[in-house]
Every structure is written in structure tokens, then in C-alpha cells.
Task: structure prediction
Amino acid sequence: MEDLLHNLIFGFGVALTLQNLMYCFLGVFLGTMIGVLPGIGPLATMAMLLPLTFILEPVSALIMLAGIYYGSDYGGSTTSILVNLPGEGSSVVTLLDGHPMAQQGRAGPALAIAGMGSFFAGCVTTLFIALIGPPLANVALKFNSPEYFSLMVTALVCASVVGSGSLLKSLAMVVAGLLVGIVGTDVNSGKFRFTFDVPELTDGIGIAVVAMGVFGMTEIVKNLAGPEMTKTILQGKIQGLMPRWQDLKIAFGPILRGTSIGGAFGPLPGLGGTVSSFASYMVEKKLTKDPSRFGKGAIEGVAGPESANNACAQTTFIPMLTLGIPGSASMALMLGAMIMHGITPGPQVMTARPDLFWGLIASMWIGNAMLLVLNLPLISIWVKLLQVPYRLLFPIIMTFMGIGIFSLNTSGTDVMIMAFFGFSGYILVKLGCSFPPLILAMVLGPLMEENLRRSLLLSNGDPMIFFERPISAGFMVATGVLLLLFIAPAFRKKRRQIIVED
Amino acid sequence: MRFRNSCCPLIVSLLACLPSVALAQGAYPTRPVRVIVPSSPGGGTDILTRRVIPAFSKHLGQNVVVDNRPGAGSIIGNDIVAHAKPDGYTLLMGISTVAILPSTRKKLPYDALTDLAPITQVVAAPNIMIVHPSLPVTTIRGLIALGKKRPGELDYASAGPGTNPHLVMALFLNMTGLNMVHIPYKGLGPALVDLISGQVVVASGTMLSSLNHVKSGRLRGLATTGLKRSTALPNLPTVDEAGVKGFDVTQWYGLFAPAGTSEEIIRKVNAAMVAALKVEQARFAADGVETVGNSPEVFGNLVRSEIGKWAKIVRAAGLEPR
Result:
């Protein structure tokens, strides 16, 4: 414990120099701006600034790059809440309840709770990383294909609560999501699926493209297609910029739970903010007394997922810092930056370059504080945006969407795909379907398939591999229990019916 | 008479303007040059390119911008440059995949030999044959012996069918007569994660991604795949030395321009890159990457021979072009 305190103080000593503070601020500021702009993400920004980091000290370079990475999560929630536009996959869930809140005039509380939740998650996970980072990384290594598959089966069972509306339509959306996820190249055989000889489709359809289409564009089409065009996004009066005490009380539980979920998913390579925020949303919807409030502006639906995705963003650093294993492309880039500065990533970084390790951890806390201070005053400006007449606002939104999606891969095909999903999305909305199951299936489906097939390859076709490995078996048992829990009430209802009829 | 007098100066002055159009074509480069990287930011190619760009920019005398065009295993990026205007303002940082693709794909939207003009080979690095430390082998001979004792039981990881790690391993298995199970992943990153945790036990990793793990001991390196030993791992023999005669595979990156770019521009770019590479040589060597910087002709010959070599390897691996 004393060691930890000593290390943290040392870390703060490194992070609180004027130079590092400056670069931390630059990083989080850029990150927020990038997060607000749809499309262009932290990865491209980090890559563009990489040459700048050559002339910097390694610590300053990493602090700045890290700031860009977790800063973008703060910005992403802004557009989700205000204009139903998810900047990344991880902001998708926020708009489900965040945008209705904005429409009801409660954008201020939504943005504030999102910021506070993210800040809380950031602080807790920083401590988390300091305390149990290295052993946690080793546990994360034990997560291989069978564990991933079993985890996703559990997640899928819980996913039944994500959709609103008829069960049949939710299932249809799940199937649609799976079909969209199939497009691309098969991992094992290298064969193309549904690419229609279009090279841009061989890597699959990106989630940001689909999410922006079905949420962002469909929302615009919906607003324009009504009997009369929506006047402004705001449907009522602005009800205060800051959350009420009651809001904070309701949000506290979700923030805690979201942080734990995000913190658990983060170190696992391959799973990202999208899965954690969805998981948090599902947990909150299951735990609340009145699940019908979700989708109409329930503050838990914003607080939980936002904390989850910030916690996930920070704990993603654990395998990279402690073992030198990148869990995602952004981490791989940071690893590259470290290697370029002559630092060999791995467990020895903690002892050979403690200033780097602890300085970076301390800077995460500082960065989160900066982000809170940056974002809270901006809320009043963002809220004013909602009062701009819609006929002026929607062309601007569409332009940003187009530029944003184009900037992802410098690909016009992506923009056309987004347009396709925008129009189909409108048709689906008119038919009474909701999109979260589609997005979830798009993300989980390919991952499940890949991990299932790989697990069976490794076990030479033996399906017992999922039950022989302890962690995987645990998830399978949990799935069974959950299924029983879900079916049992239906059973009891049926039995009561039969008894009454008697 | 008066009319002609007033027209003459006008016509003469107009004619005098014409040469200025030729002057405007000035000395290349007169505006920023962009280098297309056919993979996403953060990957090996991207980081390597960004490392060499500042020095390259300085020697070229103009700003050089990196433009990431990922997709279809580098086909999209290659295609863009193959069909770009040959004015020297669009260049390609090509991966050695450019020599593999003609054998693994039935239809390519460009032809690597006729649509791309080689400028210089930038860097070259061999792969490392790596195993998980739990495997009781320390040499290639040991691996071959183990493989023969347990056919079809050892699992090897790759970055996906048709990728460099896969094909190098396939060549190794073909030349040694071994039988191992191929476990493909979506890229070398996830493959290495599973290799480190011991899910799979063998792989042929690229120098850029694997050196770090071999140096730290998390993975055991058995040999490097080039003809000469790697300067970063001088204690490791080459696969050729270790018993598989004639085994020689290297991964390289090279600068290309669209075919039809003028000789003069190619020489200028070549000179700038060669100079930049001299500056970065030491830093690259520390990462096991050898800077090359040869002439366009030598590089062109290399590309041609590589295409032929990989065609044979792909056939030997039994991969169907798709």
C-alpha cells in the first residue's frame, strides 16, 4: 500500500510538470474535438501526430497520445445526445436514452451526467490500473477463443432485453445484423462473402458507417418526413442545465456498475467500448424497476454506458503497458510510438522506466479532470444548439456526417453505404423495428463465429472444450442459469393460468 | 495601317506570354507530395513510413503527406497509385504483398509490373520463426523432429490465409515435409496474443511485430528466415543455416510511382529517399530492419523475381487463387 502511494506521488511528480500538463491538455482537447466530429477517430489523429512525438520526450508523447484516445469518448457522447449521431460504435448506446432526454429539454443533465460518469470511471480505473494492473493483464491472457465465445453467448442471452417492441421484430433485426456482419472475408478460408466483387467490401462493413446511417440519417429523414417538418430538435422547454439531486441519486448505481463492466472488458484484447456500453445498458435495463422507461429518456441509460466506455478505454492500456500486448489498433500505435523512442514494451517497463509507467497513469487522472472542466461549461453552448431551427441544422449535420464517414477510410463507397442504411433505416422504423439488436448482432455475430470456429480448430472438433476450460465453463453455466431465470417467470404465469382455469 | 499598328504590340505581347506556361512546369516538386500507405494507421507499414517521412521531406524539399488507404489487403491503396497521374505527386509505399497478390488473387484491378514504376526498396527484414517457451525445442532441427513425432498436432498461427506469416510457414512446412494445423487470425496482432498465451505454439512472425517479444523472452526465436543473419538477433541462425537449405524469405517495403512517371522525377525521389534512409539507418537497425535504398532498376528486378518466387510458394502451399 505504501509502495503504491509512493509510486503514485512519483507519477504525479512526473505528470505535473508544465510540459506534460501542456501536452496532456493538448491531447484531451484534440480528443474531445475529434470525438465530437463524427467519423474521424482517435486512431487517425494519433497517427497524424506521431511524427510530432518524435521530437518530444517519450513520457510527454505517450501522455498526449493517451489523452487523444480517452478524450474522444467524452466528445462522442455529445453528438449522440444532441443530434442522435453516434461518433463511434461506443457512443451508439448513449443516444438511445440521451437523445430523447435532449428532445425533452434535458440535454444539459444528460451531458453533465455523461461527463461526471466518465470522470468517475476514469478516476476509479486509474487507481485500478495502479493497484492490480499487472496481475490483471495475466488473467486477461487466460481469455482465449473458448472464453470469448462463452462470454458472448452469455451476452447474447441478456441481449433479449435490448430491443424494444415486438420480439419477432427484434429477432428480425438480429438476423439483419448478422447478415450485415457476414459481409467481408472469411478468416479461415480467405473466401469472400457477399462482396459482389467490390474491393471496399472485402474488409466488411464498418460499424460506424452503419450506426451513423441507421441512427443519424434515419433521424433526419424521420424529422423531414413527418406531416410537417420538425421545427427544432427541442420538443419542450429547456429544463435546467445541471442534473437535479434526484438525477444524481438515480445515476449513482449505474455509474458504479458501468465502471466495473467497462473495467472488466477493457483488458480483454479485441472487445471494445461498443460491447461494454451495450453490456452496461442491458444490465441497467434488467435491474431497473420500470424497464419501459428505457428508450424514452431514462438517465440510467446514459450514466451506465458512458462510465462503461470510459472505463474500458482506460483499462485497455493495461495489457499494453504491462505486457506489451496491444488489444486494438490504437494500442498498437502507442506501442509503436514506445518502440520508436527506444523503449522495449513489456513487464520490465514498470521497473526500467517507472517515470513512464506511473507518469502515464497519473496523467490519466489529470486528463480526466481536465476533460470534466473542459466539457461542463460547454454544455450551455451545446444546449443552445438545440434551439437552432431544424431547417438550418440538418444540412449542417448531413455535411458533417458525409465528411466524417468519408474521412474514416477516404472512401466514397462508405458514404454510399451509409446512405443506403439511412434510407433502409427509415423504412424499418416505419415498420416498427428498433436498431440496437441490429448493431449488437453486427458486432457480436462475427466475433462469435470467429471464436467458435477457432476454438473447434484448436480442440480438433471437440465441443467439450467450452466446458473443460474453467472460465469458459463458468460462462456457460451462467448462461444456463440466466436462461432459466428468464423462462421461469413465464412458466409460473402459465401455471397460474392453468390453476385459475381449473 | 493604324489597325495593324495597334494589333501588333498586342499580338507580340500575347506571344511573349507563351513561354511562361513552360516555365510554370518548373522544378519538381513544386507542391506537397502524398505517399499512399495501403494499410490502416498504427500498423507496421504506417509507423515505418511516418518514421522516414520527415527526413524524406527535407531532402525532397517539399512537404510529404501520408495518406492511409486501407482495404482488401493493400489492393485498394495499390490500385489508387497504379491509376494516378504520373506527375510524381502521388507515390506508393508498397508492401512486399504487392508481389504475393498476383498469385493469390484471380483478378487484380492493376498489374504490378506494368502499372507501377519502382523507385527504390526502402527496407527489408526477415521473419522470425517463433515458438512458445513451453515447447521443448530450441532449434529448427528440434522443431522439425518434434513435428515429425507429432504430425497434425502442433498448431501454428498466421495473420490470415495468403498473408506473409502464413505463406512463410507454409513454405517451411512444405520444404521440411511437416504437417501442422493452420490457425488463421485477423491480422498478426491477435495471432501474437494467442501465441504468447500459449493457445498456439508456432508462428513465423514479421520482424517488426515479433522482435520485441523475442527480446523480452516471452516468445522463443528459433531462426530468422533471410539468407543472412539479422543484425538485431545475431545469435539466431538462419533457417538456411539450421538445416533447411535454400530457405530465403524477406518482407520488404518499397516506394513506387505510377507507371509513366518521368525518369527525372524518379531519380529525384530515389535520391531523396536514399538520403533519408541514411539518416534513419541506425534507428531502423536497432529494430532489426535493414534499410536498403537501391536503384530503380535493381528494385524493379527484385519485384519481378519476387513475383515469380511467391507464385511457386503459393502453389506449393496449395492455396487456390480467389
User: Anything to note?
Assistant: The beta strands of chain A are 184-185, 192-193. The mean pLDDT of chain A is 86. Residues 148 and 166 of chain A are 29 Å apart (CA to CA). The longest strand of chain A covers residues 184-185.
